[in-house]
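in:
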């Protein structure tokens, strides 16, 4: 991170005691097709459903957040994939960026993979219908309720959306056979990934991953770690797979900015990929040193009017 700017967003949803938003990209790792939260739609969210804080706990107004968005070139918004308040905030942040006159803005999404970029481009340009776009681009199960507004906001402004994530078939190959197995792929496949060999998790990111895995596996039988080395809680190649996602999303953003150096990018992603400044932010810094990044984390809390110590340092 090159600039310590911005805000963690604490939010309280309304239906089914969904008291906040948040987090973990681990949700993305296990359930990328998560269904939308019942009974709450992003377009019904109001200012009563969230509060905005700096990473140190200072209360901020929406205008403060917008100003910090304007100070950055890459805005990373960490979400819980079935959280309607997060999805509302993402669209609002993108729309704010689209209205800024200093830089053109583009959207970027974990929810589409690099190999469907041409389909996304064709839809945004009006060459194909939305029906064909959705049948060809493999959208997540909750696209209609949760991610369509983000895409449509970019489309209405005639601005791009980056399909940033690594195709799952190659992530699965890493899970089964390890990262070195990617070198066996033809060049036609490698074009959809970060340049090989991609960087693995930093020690800080690995520690966060190990803590997450320890919590997830508490009380479960010890897993077999014989199939993928020891880079992360005996979970085989799982962390290598996570790092392929991180590296490819970061590279997709960096490559876009190489071609469009005056633009600003708003990227939406599961929180674990970004919330501590590890994962994607580290890879962006490696691919494009000095990029001004802003991390916004939408975090679930019991009371959004109180900033808990456990949230200190999340995001900027």
């Amino acid at each position: 991170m090159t600039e310590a700017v911005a805000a963690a967003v604490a939010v309280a949803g309304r239906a089914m005691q969904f008291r906040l938003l948040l987090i973990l990209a681990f949700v993305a790792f296990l359930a990328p097709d998560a269904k939308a939260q019942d009974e709450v739609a992003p377009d019904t969210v109001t200012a009563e459903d969230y509060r905005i804080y700096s990473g140190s706990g200072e209360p901020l107004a929406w205008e403060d957040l917008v100003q910090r968005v304007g100070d950055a070139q890459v805005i990373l918004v960490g979400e819980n994939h079935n959280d309607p308040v997060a999805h509302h905030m993402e669209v609002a942040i993108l729309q704010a960026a689209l209205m800024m006159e200093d830089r053109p803005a583009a959207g970027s999404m974990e929810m589409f993979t690099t190999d469907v970029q041409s389909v996304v481009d064709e839809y945004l340009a009006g060459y194909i219908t939305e029906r064909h776009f959705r049948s060809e681009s493999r959208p997540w199960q909750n696209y209609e309720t949760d991610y369509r507004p983000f895409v449509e906001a970019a489309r209405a402004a005639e601005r791009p959306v980056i399909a940033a994530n690594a195709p799952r078939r190659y992530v699965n190959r890493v899970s089964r056979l390890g990262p070195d197995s990617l070198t066996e792929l033809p060049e036609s496949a490698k074009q959809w990934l970060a340049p090989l060999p991609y960087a693995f998790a930093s020690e800080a990111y690995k520690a966060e991953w190990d803590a997450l895995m320890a919590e997830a596996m508490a009380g479960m039988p010890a897993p077999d770690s014989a199939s993928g080395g020891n880079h992360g809680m005996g979970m085989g190649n799982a962390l290598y797979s996570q790092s392929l996602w991180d590296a490819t999303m970061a590279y997709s953003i960096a490559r876009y900015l190489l071609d469009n150096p005056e633009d600003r990018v708003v990227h939406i992603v599961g929180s674990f990929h970004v919330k501590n400044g590890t994962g994607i932010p580290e890879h962006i810094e490696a691919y494009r040193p000095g990029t001004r990044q802003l991390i916004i984390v939408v975090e679930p809390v019991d009371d959004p009017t109180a900033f808990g110590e456990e949230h200190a340092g999340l995001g900027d």
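note: Confidence is low (pLDDT under 50) at residues 1-39, 223-234.
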